[in-house]
Amino acid sequence: MPDKNDISRKLLNPLNKLWEKIFRKKIKETDVYFISGMCYNCTVFDNLKLPDGFNKKYIEWMIPEPEETLEKYTRKMMAGIDTSRPFILVGYSFGGVIVQEMNKYINPIKTIIISSFKRVEEIPGMFKVASRANLWEKIPERLYNSTEFITEIFNRFIYNVPNSELISYMTITDPVYVRWAVNQITAWKPSYETPRLYHIHGTDDQIFPFTLIDNAFPVQGGDHLMVFKKADVVSLILGSILLINEKD
Length: 248
Known about the structure:
Blueprint: H1 4-26, E1 30-35, E2 54-58, H2 70-77, E3 87-92, H3 94-102, E4 111-114, H4 125-133, H5 141-144, H6 147-159, H7 175-187, E5 197-202, E6 217-219, H8 226-229, H9 231-242
Parallel strand pairs: 1-2, 1-3, 3-4, 4-5, 5-6
Helix pairs in contact: 2-3, 4-7
């Protein structure tokens, strides 16, 4: 006597295949542009897996002019985006600020931020103190020229990991860039409500405390480096968000 499960499979498989064909016809190839965190290159995203049909593309940091505005810099970073094709923006940490700013000028299908912030209420206390006191302006120029100073500040006092673990990622340490970037991220106040915005955040984030974060997909035990430490979990959430069908 035939197994009932075998009969069900024979009936359902053709229907599933037909549905897949219909679904795939509706989905166009989509470019997914990634921007990394401050001082980090885009290899932090190498272990993230995207669903079929989504093409991973990287936008690396540029060295700004010393007094360059965030608007001008954002427009320069946008130059590598092909807006004639369907596209999605993903920003990690400071990259999350940039992709939200990009939404003022271009119209992605959706925007995803990872380990970042999107509302004034989510700004961490240390950013508020640094901004009010112009703390980073008071750091001597010679220290900005020291790669060791930058890596020690971030790795030992914030991440509590040895420099050797991050040396291949933390390569954007030009002093002009670092001074500009820390000033921009500590002074940034979200003033534009980004449409179709999704947020992925770790519950143990050292920079942006999870207790301040509203309406985000949580990664249990994820810290500020979870984009590569927990790439498998982040990939699952990211893939689910990418597959959400946006309706106007």
